[in-house]
Amino acid sequence: MAASADDVAPSTASAYLDPSYWDARFGKEAYYEWFKDFSHFRHLLAPLLSPSLSVLEVGCGNSRLGEELLREGVAGGITCVDLSPVAVQRMRDRLAAQGTKGVDVVVADMLDLPFEQESFDLVIEKGTMDVLFVDSGDPWDPNPTTVDNVMKMLKCIHRVLKPEGVFVSITFGQPHFRRRFFEAPEFTWSVEYSTFGDGFNYFFYTLMKGKRSLESSSYQNILPAAPRINMVHEELESEDFIFLTNLDEP
Predict the structure, then answer these.
(1) How high does pLDDT run on average in the chain?
(2) Which Gene3D superfamilies match (predicted)?
């Protein structure tokens, strides 16, 4: 029987940073899609797919995105990683029970990915990076630990992407909060984004390695003035809203 939201939701947002929380959660919960399932953003992701792609999903949890990519015809190898050995084993068991082949599930830390340089054509994260921001303080000036961990994650992803590979980040993080990280000087990717969702926007960032422009390199020099910030940690209709940043006009 599937666990209810009350059974698995943490008492505080900072619990999302505790690996033991995820092990306990995945021991109870069979399935949960952070930031909507594939059907909600298929129109944005499908144009980036082709049969020959090698794909890495970072922070797979108990999502079914890997299986959806298989159904879309991706046959170059799909690797799903998660820090939780409980999540990894349960996904392996699920795939075996279904007779699904072509998805490799690996225990790995997104801050230290165990793959060779330039291994993947496409890297996807969906809500995984948002976890690093749950205890960040002021989103306009995150604490040093948050900044360090986000940059470690992005450097790992940039390293394992092939030349002209694509990184897709699906997040609540608004451009004025994310671009300072995505457009750091050490990265060569271009940054574009779209939105999806009804009522609350999810951001779908597409970063193409080796395609950085001079305009993006100067973006950090033209950041808008910071409005007053309230961080809203509400459950609403799903846990996604734990990551929602609410900007109040001054």
Answers:
(1) 86
(2) Vaccinia Virus protein VP39
